[in-house]
Amino acid sequence: MSEIYDAIVIGTGQAGPALAVRLAQAGRKTAILERKLFGGTCVNVGCTPTKTLVASARAAYLARRGADFGVMIDGLVRVDMARVKARMDAVVKQSNTGLTTWLKGTPNLTVLEGHGRFESAHSVRINGALLEAKEIFLNVGARALVPELPGLTGIDYLTSSGMMEIDFLPEHLIIVGGSYIGLEFAQMYRRFGSRVTIVEKGSRLIAREDEEISAAIRAILEREGIDIRLNAECLSVARHGDGVAVGLSCEDASRKVTGSHLLLAVGRVPNTADLGLDQAGIETDQRGYIRVDDQLRTNVAGIWALGDANGRGAFTHTAYNDYEIVAANLLDQDARRVTDRIAAYALYIDPPLGRVGMTEQEVRASGRPALVGRMLMSRVGRARERGETQGCMSVLVDAQTKKILGAALLGIEADEAIHTILDIMYAGVPYTVIQRATHIHPTVSELIPTLLSDLKPLV
Q1: Is position 261 annotated as part of the catalytic site?
Q2: Is the pLDDT at 233 greater than 90, yes or no?
Q3: Burial level of 452, CB count in 10 A (0-12/13-18/19+)?
Q4: Which one of 48, 68, 227, 434 has the minimum C-beta count within 10 Å?
C-alpha cells in the first residue's frame, strides 16, 4: 500500500526546504526526504563551517599583525584548534537545528529521514515505504570528487567534508587542487599555523579566471608563505613515514612534495548515482548531472531538479534561486527562467574575490567591441586605512550598448562591493548610471564610479 502525496521533495539543501514549505502552505500535501544532514552541503560541510573557519583564521592573522596598527600583543599568538572547531560546530548546529525545527513544525509537511529511491516516474521508496506523487523535486546536491590517483587506496586523505572533522593543526598540509575550495583551505590553515603546499596540474591557479586575477591571487598566497607547485601534470601519492608524498611527475621521480596530511580539492560530483533515475526515465549528462530546461524541468513530466545536481550552478545562491524560479512558475504564474540569472560568485580567500558576468577571455572570444577599466586596490582609501592594499579591480563594458558585461573585484570587502555592479547589470542600464552616482566615503564602492571613468579599449 503506497502513501499518496501531492508533492515529494528529495533533499534538504538550499532549495528543498523553502520549496517544501511553500508547497505545503499552498495546500499541497508534501513530503520532504533527507538521508543524512539537514541543510545539505552549505550548512554542514560547506559555506557555514568554512566561513566560520575563515573568520577564526583572519582573527589569528590580525592578531599577528597587531603591531602594524599600534596594538602590541605580548607573547606568541597561539591557535587552539579544538576551540576553533567547537566554535564552528556551534554555528553549524544553530543553522542545522533551526532548519530541522522549521521543517518539522510546518503544517501539511511530512519530514522523513532515510534514502529515497525512484521505483517509477512518480513513486519513491524510503525505509521500506512506497510514496507516490504527481510532482517530485530533486535537491540532492553534490559531494567532493575523489580522483583516481595512483597509490591513493594505500594512504589516508581528507576531502573538504573530512576537513570539518579535524580538531588539530596539520604540520604540513598538502592540497591537491588549485581552485576555489583548495585556496580557501590553504590560506586558513596557513594562518592557523600549518605549512601549506598547493599542488595544481595546470599552469596557473583558478584557470577560469583572467590571468591578471590568477597572478594576483598567487601573489597574495605566496606572500603569506604558501608554497605553490604548478604544472604537476602526472600526480601520484604514496605513504611517507607517518605522512604522505605526492609525486608531481611521471618522468622525474625526484619531483615530489612530502607532508603530514593530504587534502583532495579537485572538484565535486552530483549525488545522482543511487537515486534510481533510470527507473524514472530521468536523463543525465555524461558527468551525472540531471538535464533540465530553462525552468528546471527534467525530461519527465512532473519532475524538477534544483541545486548542484542539475549542473546549472554550484553555489548556495544559485540553488536558492532555483527554488525561486520553480516556485514562481508553479505557484505564482510568474514566468522566471534560469537564463535570466547573471553569473556571480565569490572566492573567500582574504582579501576576497567578487566576480560577476563575463571574464576578459570570454569577452574577447565573443568578438564584440569592449572597454575595460582597471585599478589597483592601493588606490582605495578604505584599503589603505585598513592596511590591506592587495588586489585589483577590473570592469568590462560593451562599447556599443554601454552596458556592463562583467567585473572582477579582488580586494578588501570585494564580495560586498561587487553587488553594486551586479544590480546595475540586472537593471539593464548603461554603466553611466553608476559612474555618475555619488557613493559614500570612505568605502570600497566609492571607487567604482572612478573605475568607470577611465575606460580604455579592450585589446
Answers
A1: no
A2: no
A3: buried
A4: 68
